[in-house]
Design a protein that fits this description.
Helix content is about 35%, strand content about 25%. It is of the alpha+beta class and about 400 residues long.
Length: about 400
């Protein structure tokens, strides 16, 4: 490199000296032509030989031979998926960078003490790890996109609708799905959605369904409807109803027969004893309504005892317990049901207390009737009231 730079410098010096020496020369035309003098125009700026030399000395190239690891980019492939909402993307295979070892000559340019990269020349490449392609699926389903749902999600019926064995309106009906009930999405075929309802699998018209995204209120409507569907004479009352405090207030408020608003004012109490003793709170309310005639009986008014608890047929008024408020009576009866009637012996109830199961015959209203009331029609009467209370959820 030093030899190369020295040669360049010598050539530059010779060139400059030649130009300077000939600056005053006169060139004549051919003798056969008219005498003519041509004078070469001198440079307007003085040429500084030293500057040229210095510039050439300050500029030089540096080469470096290196071996290094480098990433190999992966490619991305997009695939259409008719079972994804339109335009939604889902990575089904993550891309992974590969690796290679390269031997390369890198050239740097050093100008006035500063070195900058100029170029490189790859001499050898060895791939040590191949990249893995990234695969992204892009949804094309207009229906799933409209409802913002995916396979496996839940949708809700807006009316009683048929579940068919094929995706057309003339297909055989497998069963009828009631209003406000939920179905699980399996797939999409045309304008029909492939769904599972209980143990049944079939197709329903997408126009008869809504989602939580389009109609969020249907989630609670579904819960209420399923609760109502489970209300029957043989229902298990040894577990909570699953209703919210607001629903208890809705059910026990604005009942014309509750003239003293005893049940309306104690809606929260019925709700909390349900949680505390793990029994159906509306069963307790129905029992209290039946035994006290909506809180109008003498025992309920004088003794704050809605259930006639402790009363014997031969002297009901005097034998009935007296409570310090309706809440105490409600909790006492709830505890008695959980401890003696609705749980087998040894069952742990509230506070770590153990059930005696002394009068346990099952977990239905009818099973309570066997040892709780002498009136054989007691269970039917209580269930009819209980069914009416549940019915208020639809109002």
């Amino acid at each position: 490199m030093k030899i190369k730079n020295a040669v360049v410098i010598v050539i530059c010096i010779i060139f400059v000296i030649t130009i300077t020496a000939s600056a005053s020369k006169i060139f004549a035309s051919n003798s056969d032509t008219q005498d003519m003098q041509v004078q070469i125009e001198s440079n307007s700026q003085k040429i500084e030989i030293e500057d040229i030399i210095k510039d050439n000395i300050k500029t030089q190239e540096v080469k470096e031979l290196v071996t290094e690891n480098r990433k190999i980019d992966f490619k991305t492939t997009y695939q259409e998926n008719e079972n994804l909402p339109k335009d939604e993307q889902q990575i089904v295979q993550e891309g992974i960078y590969g690796n290679k070892i390269v031997t390369v000559v890198k050239t740097y340019e050093r100008v006035q003490g500063r070195q900058t990269f100029k170029e490189e020349n790859i001499l050898n490449t060895t791939v040590t790890k191949n990249p893995v392609e990234q695969i992204i699926e892009v949804g094309t389903s207009e229906i799933l996109g409209k409802f913002r749902v995916h396979l496996g999600d839940t949708m809700y019926t807006i009316a009683d609708i048929p579940l068919r064995d094929a995706a057309n309106q003339n297909a055989n009906i497998i069963c009828t799905i009631g209003k406000y009930l939920d179905v699980k999405i399996i797939g999409v075929e045309g304008n029909y959605i492939h769904v599972q309802y209980l143990e049944n699998i079939g197709y329903v018209d997408s126009n008869m369904l809504v989602s939580e995204f389009t109609n969020p209120e249907y989630v609670q409507k579904c819960i209420m409807q399923k609760t109502l569907n489970e209300v029957n004479f043989d229902m298990d009352v040894s577990k909570p109803s699953g209703l919210t405090l607001e629903q208890f207030k809705q059910i026990l408020s604005n009942n014309p027969k509750d003239i003293n608003k005893i049940f309306e004012n104690n809606a929260q109490v019925f709700y909390y004893v349900e949680q505390k003793y793990n029994i159906n709170g509306l069963l307790l309310a129905a029992m209290g309504i039946h035994e006290s005639a909506w809180g109008t009986s003498k025992i309920s008014k004088d003794k704050q005892n809605l259930f006639g608890y402790g009363a014997y047929d031969h002297d009901a008024y005097n034998s009935a317990f007296t409570f310090n408020g309706y809440q105490e009576g409600i909790e006492t009866v709830a505890r008695a049901l959980a401890k003696n009637y609705l749980n087998p012996p040894g069952t742990i109830i509230y506070g770590g207390e153990t059930a005696t199961g002394q009068y346990y015959n099952g977990t239905t209203i009818k099973s309570i009737n066997i040892r709780y009331a002498t009136d054989e029609n007691w269970a039917n009467a209580v269930f009819n009231i209980m069914e009416g209370l549940y019915g208020k959820l639809q109002q």
